[in-house]
Queue: 4 jobs
Job 1
Amino acid sequence: MTWQGFLTTFAALYLIMVVRYFMVSGLFYWLLWVRPQEQLTARRLTGIRPDKALILSEIRWSLLSSIIYTIAGAIIVEAWKAGGTALYTDVSDYGWWYVVASLFAYLFVHDTYFYWTHRWMHHPSVFKYLHRVHHESRQPTPWAAFSFHPWVAIIGSIAVPVMTFFVPIHVGALMFMLIIMTVTGVLNHTGYEIMPDGWLRGRGGKLFISAAHHNLHHQHYRCNYGLYFRFWDKLMGTDVMESEYEFLQREPQIV
Ligand SMILES: [Zn+2]
Ligand SMILES: [Zn+2]
């Protein structure tokens, strides 16, 4: 690995990260917050409308955090090129079942790591130094998906890269996981619940986190710390959700 190679990879990845962020966050911001929204207000999670200063702050922190995530990504790519990771490209190496199993294993480990580091960041002695930035968004917008203090971004970008050195994962599965990370990061901060009623009331809503779940974390702080799954919140008694489904009953209204 050379510095020049690393910097080239870094520049290319950062460009992809930023374009990805503006495309996905921008799309959902436009869909949910800019367009006339009579049909959507029933699914709006709070009456708070974030102001322009907050949105600009969310974008600034997200672009800064993306530098950290890009460094983590560039390390993986360069280490892979040098043959130093457990990434592989031939599905037949472990079979299709392993592609699926490894994806879930990565998601579960990432979720576990996120849950416990997130809970730790809510400890009063560390909250103001690390995690306060993310909670400046009392009602987040899609732009808050990566709105973290750089130290939080550093802590958050350790688990997955470390795993790629030890736990084999197909490159396609890892790319798919990055898409899941992006989409869930944006969707959980939209301020609207867009998943269908059937999903929310069914097994999907019981297992997976959605916007309504994470929005409650931004409102109440001391609940719903998870990232993808409700597993750890339920196990540790920090899950708050069931009583909040009444928003599904609301009639569309103009606000
Ligand atoms: Zn959040
Ligand atoms: Zn938090």
Note: The mean pLDDT is 90.
Job 2
Amino acid sequence: MIGLETEPRPILRAYSMASAVYDDWLEFFSIKVPDGPLTSKLQHIVVGDEILVGAKPTGTLLASNLQPGSRLFLLATGTGFAPFASILRDPEIYERFDTVVAVEGCRQAAELAYATSVIEDVRSHEFLGELAAGKLLYYATVTREPYYHQGRIPDLIDSGKLCDDLSIAPFNLATDRVMLCGNPQMLADLRKLFAGRGYAEGSSGKPGDFVIEKAFAER
Ligand SMILES: Cc1cc2nc3c(=O)[nH]c(=O)nc-3n(C[C@H](O)[C@H](O)[C@H](O)COP(=O)(O)OP(=O)(O)OC[C@H]3O[C@@H](n4cnc5c(N)ncnc54)[C@H](O)[C@@H]3O)c2cc1C
Ligand SMILES: NC(=O)c1ccc[n+]([C@@H]2O[C@H](COP(=O)([O-])OP(=O)(O)OC[C@H]3O[C@@H](n4cnc5c(N)ncnc54)[C@H](OP(=O)(O)O)[C@@H]3O)[C@@H](O)[C@H]2O)c1
């Protein structure tokens, strides 16, 4: 949780940590909801302002909640990319998986900027770049304006287009593990899609083939 001290009580919201496990700072990637109780204020903070940060992190998007596999798919929409920014900067991910496919879906191309910059940072990083070379693939798709790749993630998976476009083998339960974060309806659609293909949902203490985290609560 992060938030701001306000009267009569603080406003706190769930956030994903986007910084790497080894960073000595915390990075967050936030939406700006124009009339949102927190983000209408948070977007105006300046250097030196204080924010509240909860001391007890929780969540299911952990590699330890996944069975062994050789390909890892990180499927996000919008700010759902935030936890993957952290995972993509974790060297262990490239030691554990032969292929890591990061997918970000947004309404407009401009909203891909954060995900694209994280991928560029990893690829150009002194140590991570070498580990990720030949392993890290990035697929960005846009739904509400023309773009190189277009369409919603579940449709791109269901039709086989995502793997075709990346020139990789189709999804395969024997090799593939999946992490999902984003729009709640997208998560419901993908949970159905993967469960229908025999993938088991993982949780703490019960590793599975895919894990899920919401990027926001629906109003
Ligand atoms: C587990 C979890 C992790 C989260 N991680 C992040 C994160 O890393 N970055 C982030 O920006 N938000 C994240 N959120 C959402 C965050 O908690 C707040 O909802 C968001 O900061 C807006 O707060 P608010 O008070 O301004 O508006 P709220 O009253 O909380 O939200 C108003 C409405 O805006 C929409 N909305 C809110 N957040 C988002 C979003 N992120 N993307 C799209 N639509 C949204 C929803 O329709 C929501 O009902 C997360 C939520 C959960 C449950
Ligand atoms: N001010 C800001 O900074 C800012 C920025 C972005 C958004 N917003 C506002 O915040 C709200 C949320 O917008 P958002 O774009 O971040 O999140 P979103 O509505 O969840 O959209 C993100 C992506 O998820 C896709 N999606 C939605 N439902 C899906 C489903 N069932 N299956 C697969 N994909 C699905 C969307 O495709 P579709 O286009 O096909 O729905 C879009 O490409 C909106 O009200 C928006 O106007 C504000």
Note: The CA atoms of residues 74 and 84 lie 7 Å apart.
Job 3
Amino acid sequence: MATLIAMHYSPWTEKARWALDHHRVPYRVEAHVPMLGEPLLRLRTGRLTGPVTIPVLLDGDGAIYDSFAIARHAERNGSGAPLFPTAHLAEITRWNDRADEGLVAARSLVVARIAASREAQAESLPGFIPESIRPALTGMAQLGVRYLAAKYSLTRDLARAEARLAGALDELRAALDGGAYLLDGDLTYADIAAAVMLQAVRPVRDAFIRLGPATRACWTTPALEQRYADLIEWRDQLYDKHRRG
Ligand SMILES: N[C@@H](CCC(=O)N[C@@H](CS)C(=O)NCC(=O)O)C(=O)O
């Protein structure tokens, strides 16, 4: 069975999992811890130098990097309705790239909030660490936050990051124009890529992605919640109807 190296709270992991689950591709999940997990990740994937990001799918043929490539792999190897209808491939790729710009902006917002929240840092520690010593180990989580800030050159200009995320959401709203799907009247990967951007506006219910209360607060952007309430509603309906697994 394939192994997905994953960070369960990351929208990039969520995109890959949604496609794998949609196509009923069996896989087991191995949790990655930023910074601490990187040496093991490089050993597992055989990529000893250069950038490496999560998710990674390991199957018999080697490692597949990038959520988009994993979703395409799921479509080739699984069953179920296509998420990448050939006629819309270019448009789906464009939406994935546009949504990625929104997610990159969102990452600066979320990491800055986690850097300021000891509670969220404690929640981010690996599950095997006992509750009693978690607060004492937040220093380790702080290092992880700094590591992500450096690795992804995160901006400190949070107003600009918020405006960038809002720009992508405005485009999504205009393209949906009150409809249920971006393309062709049915679910495609474009909807999935766009929907996960809203994780950084108001996270989806715990039944889909479980977050501790302080982490949930870090993933919430109060200034955008009201403004994009219609898109949050759209995202929640999409999850209820299509997010199996
Ligand atoms: N283009 C990649 C981007 C993935 C990405 O940015 N992953 C980040 C999520 S924050 C990650 O790997 N973070 C953990 C790390 O770098 O150790 C994809 O679509 O999979």
Note: Residues 97 and 156 are 23 Å apart (CA to CA).
Job 4
Amino acid sequence: MNVLTDIVVRPMRWWDIAGVHDLEAEAFPDTAWSAETFWSELAGVPETRCYFVARSDDRVAGYAGLMTVGSDADVQTIAVAPQFRHRGLGARLLDELLLEATRRGCSRATLEVAASSDDAQRLYRRRGFAVVGRRSGYYGPGVDALIMRLRLPGSREAGGASP
Ligand SMILES: CC(C)(COP(=O)(O)OP(=O)(O)OC[C@H]1O[C@@H](n2cnc3c(N)ncnc32)[C@H](O)[C@@H]1OP(=O)(O)O)[C@@H](O)C(=O)NCCC(=O)NCCS
């Protein structure tokens, strides 16, 4: 089913935080951000942050956030509620972040992803991210992070994923 027509993607606002935090706790049970962290992240919009939320009626279907510093963009977080997965919403949210990074003149996007998170790694690979490193125990004992990177179109270095 490819029915994203029932979902609105728009910039996240403070009144989305409660629903976003509920999904965060479900998607990342061991490492969930607090609601205060989302408040703090939104305080950085638009200077160094950009956040999107996807809503279906009153429910938060997904969200994603970006940090930009100079020519570097970092995908801070991305999650889709289980009942809305496998419909292209994760890709849509990631595309919004990458478009914003390009608009801001960033030349590369970097992210950390749990080495055990196959769904997320496939999503990033589909968009051209490649693994450039590994952080041992980043998410806790025995839970490594892969560092993935994408050269953004329009940058002079576009075309590769090298560090
Ligand atoms: C990773 C995550 C955000 C992906 O969200 P999603 O909305 O399911 O992503 P997409 O729908 O774009 O892609 C997922 C799969 O559905 C497929 N798909 C997309 N549209 C589809 C459609 N209309 N019909 C059938 N399949 C479809 C994609 O091809 C993809 O397949 P693949 O995994 O075999 O490559 C989601 O699984 C999630 O929230 N996971 C938990 C949190 C997490 O790990 N976040 C990443 C932190 S780094």
Note: The pocket of coenzyme A is lined by residues 2, 27, 78-80, 85-91, 113, 117, 119-120, 122-123, 126 (CB under 6 Å).
